């Protein structure tokens, strides 16, 4: 999400077309999911699961009381991970602490990667804040830290979600959606730490200005107390890799369109913007979704924010509703795990105060749910 603006309710806006379910989305809507954890404190956004079933979540610093921004679930309860000290927000040591983590992802080598926006309260970032940090799950110790230079991640950027292809280069590459600034995709060479931007300002990464979603029966807009409602425009957000690693799927939040781009083009630091853009494909309709995920059978997953549901996109482009329920309110991040389940965070983001004239309408608990799928995660190693 372009979350840098919605807490201040200044220039934010979430755009959209008329509410209308497409004929291509079909299937049963039974409640075939289970609640894995309930969160009674800060609002979570991300979830990931290791090969051994360890579950990690994160809590960005958007205004809630966030004692730790990364946690492991132990006995169903979040515990600061890898420890409390690194989770302590410290403006005097931006690189040495997690400032505001938006996403956590376990890679194909079973390492936990932490994506720190470096931008608590969406106030903007400084060098050392935005970073990608690896934790060895065998030792629970930080083993790698990649800081993003300001020319790649400017102060108004918002690194959102990340996927990994460990076959590329000497140690692999990471692909990150930027939901702030000019939007686009950030590419990171994990061996050297070098990073570069692609698709910045490209139409496929920008919000659809004609888009106005309807959530819980009302148009979803920024509604400041005493002010006029405005559209909330959010660009590149969801991200997923194809099973063979040749395509990167991505989508703006303020859109019902899905796009993909060649990972070969993205991973080439010498490719021009025009050469990368030439590989973009418009894959047509998708429901309004925050995060995306993929499985090893070439299928995509996301949440339908307007219908409190989870969907799957088949390789032939058809969609199927997998689960629907009133408590699946704002599906944020998704993760396909080795236990052949799809995990998802439902965090009621649409009920935050900037969207309701200063009134916080969230009702705890926030949920982590899962449902069985007949596939495992994409492992490019």
From TrEMBL:
<protein>
    <recommendedName>
        <fullName>Gluconolaconase</fullName>
    </recommendedName>
</protein>
<dbReference type="GO" id="GO:0005576">
    <property type="term" value="C:extracellular region"/>
</dbReference>
<feature type="signal peptide">
    <location>
        <begin position="1"/>
        <end position="20"/>
    </location>
</feature>
<dbReference type="Pfam" id="PF03022">
    <property type="entry name" value="MRJP"/>
</dbReference>
<keyword id="KW-0964">Secreted</keyword>
<dbReference type="InterPro" id="IPR011042">
    <property type="entry name" value="6-blade_b-propeller_TolB-like"/>
</dbReference>
<dbReference type="InterPro" id="IPR017996">
    <property type="entry name" value="MRJP/yellow-related"/>
</dbReference>
<keyword id="KW-0732">Signal</keyword>
């Amino acid at each position: 999400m372009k979350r840098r603006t919605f807490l201040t309710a200044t220039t934010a806006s979430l755009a959209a077309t008329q509410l209308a379910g497409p004929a291509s989305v079909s299937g049963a809507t039974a409640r075939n999911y289970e609640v894995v954890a309930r969160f009674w404190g800060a609002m979570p956004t991300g979830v990931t699961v290791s090969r051994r079933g360890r579950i990690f979540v994160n809590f960005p610093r958007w205004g809630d009381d966030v004692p730790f921004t990364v946690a492991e679930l132990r006995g169903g309860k979040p515990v600061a991970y890898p420890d409390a000290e690194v989770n302590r927000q410290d403006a005097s040591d931006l690189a040495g602490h997690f400032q505001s983590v938006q996403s956590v992802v376990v890679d194909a080598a079973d390492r936990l990667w932490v994506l720190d926006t470096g931008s608590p309260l969406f106030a903007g970032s400084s060098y050392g804040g935005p970073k990608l940090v690896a934790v060895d799950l065998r030792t629970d110790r930080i083993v790698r830290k990649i800081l993003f230079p300001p020319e790649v991640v400017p102060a108004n950027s918002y690194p959102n979600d990340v996927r990994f292809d460990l076959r590329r280069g000497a140690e692999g590459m990471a692909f990150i959606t930027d939901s702030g600034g000019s939007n686009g995709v950030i590419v990171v060479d994990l061996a050297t730490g070098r990073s570069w931007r692609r698709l910045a300002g490209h139409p496929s990464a920008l919000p659809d200005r004609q888009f106005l979603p309807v959530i819980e029966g009302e148009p979803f807009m920024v509604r400041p107390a005493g002010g006029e409602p405005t559209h909330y425009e959010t660009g590149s957000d969801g991200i997923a890799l194809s099973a063979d690693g040749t395509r990167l799927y991505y989508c703006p939040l303020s859109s019902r369109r899905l796009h993909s781009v060649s990972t070969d083009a993205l991973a080439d630091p010498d490719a021009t913007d025009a050469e990368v853009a030439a590989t973009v494909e418009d894959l047509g309709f998708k429901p309004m979704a925050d995060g995306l995920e993929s499985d090893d059978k070439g299928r995509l997953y996301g949440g339908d924010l307007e219908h409190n549901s989870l969907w799957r996109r088949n390789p032939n482009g058809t969609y199927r509703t997998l689960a629907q329920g009133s408590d699946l309110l704002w599906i944020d991040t998704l993760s396909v795990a080795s236990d052949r389940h799809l995990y998802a965070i439902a965090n009621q983001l649409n009920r935050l105060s900037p969207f309701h004239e200063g009134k916080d309408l969230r009702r705890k608990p926030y949920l982590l749910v899962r449902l069985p799928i007949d596939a495992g995660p994409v492992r490019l190693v």
